[in-house]
Amino acid sequence: MDDIAWFERWDDDPDVVAATTDRPDATVAFEDTEWADEFAQQDEYSRYYIAELAGRPIGAMQIIDPHMENTHYWESIEPNLRAVDIWIGDPADRNKGYGETMMRLACRLCFADPAVTAIVIDPLNSNTAAHRFYRRLGFVPTHRQIFCGTDDCLVHRLTRASWARMFPDDAWPCGDTTNGGILAEPHYKTTEPR
Ligand SMILES: CC(C)(COP(=O)(O)OP(=O)(O)OC[C@H]1O[C@@H](n2cnc3c(N)ncnc32)[C@H](O)[C@@H]1OP(=O)(O)O)[C@@H](O)C(=O)NCCC(=O)NCCS
Q1: Which ligand 1 atom lies nearest to the CA of residue 89?
Q2: Residues 6+ apart with CB under 8 A from 39
Q3: Does residue 22 form part of some domain?
Q4: Tens digits of per-residue pLDDT, 69-118?
Q5: How many domains does the chain have?
Q6: Which domain CATH number covers 66?
Q7: Which of 24, 89, 114, 143 is most buried (CB neighbours < 10 A)?
Q8: From the CA of 51, how far away is ligand 1's center (Å)?
Q9: Is the CB of 96 within 6 Å of ligand 1?
Q10: What distance in angstroms lies between residue 191's CA and the mean position of ligand 1's atoms?
Q11: Is the pTM of this model over 0.70?
Q12: Is 125 a member of any domain?
């Protein structure tokens, strides 16, 4: 199965759907997203990563520079931040600590750039399980914000100082961009039929 097929499969998972919209009738996550187009549009300000367990894809992350990326999803936000989105596609792979491992690797990638001061995330206000997950990693809620006109989110932030305090082993030596071999960039095949 290629990467696009994994992303499409994960789009159907009810918890992933519920993490992306409060609409009770929604049946698919990231509605209107064509993954081939998304992957093709990646650039220095927006990248997707796939987490693999012994070669099996289990989840995905997107890391963006919210000030610079071209959709301006975060509207007006200061420079020198990163924004992370994460989802694990199969319930059987959740609640085993993989999400924490993924986020810690993502934090290392983000803070490897010495200019980055903090990471922001935007879970739906209704996604209380995700709030617990992020707070355990040192993220602090900062404010409610409506994204895309409809999505009621509770924005959280992890400063570089908090991250270094919580995970000193991850934070040193700063500038290490290795990811432990767990995160792979999608090798998308936009010319092949699905
Ligand atoms: C949010 C998400 C990424 C977290 O990933 P995860 O791998 O489930 O996270 P963890 O396993 O590190 O932690 C989740 C829970 O499992 C528990 N846990 C971790 N390792 C465990 C283990 N070995 N045994 C039992 N429980 C464990 C954690 O304590 C935590 O408990 P809590 O819910 O009471 O806080 C994942 O659940 C997910 O993809 N959810 C659907 C999409 C989503 O909500 N994405 C976030 C959008 S903002």
Answers
A1: 39
A2: 3, 4, 48, 186, 188, 190
A3: no
A4: 999 999 999 999 999 999 999 999 999 999 999 999 999 999 999 999 99
A5: 1
A6: 3.40.630.30
A7: 89
A8: 14
A9: yes
A10: 35
A11: yes
A12: yes
